[in-house]
Amino acid sequence: MEAIEPKHLLIVDNHDSFVYNLVQMVEENGHCTFDIVRNDCLVPESITGYKGILLSPGPGLPGEAGKLCRLIEETHRHTPILGICLGHQAIAEVFGARLTRLDQPLHGHRSALLITEPDELLFRGVEDGSPIGHYHSWVIERESCPEELLTTAVDDKGLIMAIRHRCYPVRGLQFHPESIMTTAGKNMIDNWILSL
């Protein structure tokens, strides 16, 4: 039987300790190799040879995150991207959405994931209403979300929790799949890796 070649991923570290939880999930998947590069050390024009790009959470706003937005602009046509929290927000901004600050930041908050697109590959085997963990002060402003970004899940307050580009293999999760509060988070990461 022929051995399956591991999928080589780029994990972008947006200067956040949560990146190590994501790395652990990728390692536990067992079918990947990866490089970790900080967002301010990226050379977006020379990023090639990766099966997928995983954008970690991080502090601040996308415009303050090194070369994160430029990376998305350079790679989204040819490389699958999954953005988590700040990474999700950066995807939204690159494609024309605006962010809005929450009246009450959601740090260490748990809510229910309400899946609006049941065929979304990230949510295969994930029960509607599954708990998710939030660590963010900003969300995508629903009214500014462009037609090309499909909302695939919301929370119990109707805030956008997941997006998918209609033409490119680009997805984002506002919540943290790597958080212990997100019970099906590993399943979501595994689903994404399987799709690559």
From TrEMBL:
It comes from the Bacteria. GO terms for cellular component: cytosol. Keywords: Glutamine amidotransferase. One of its GO terms (molecular function) is anthranilate synthase activity. Residues 10-194 form the Glutamine amidotransferase domain. Pfam families: GATase (PF00117). GO terms for biological process: L-tryptophan biosynthetic process. This is Aminodeoxychorismate/anthranilate synthase component II.
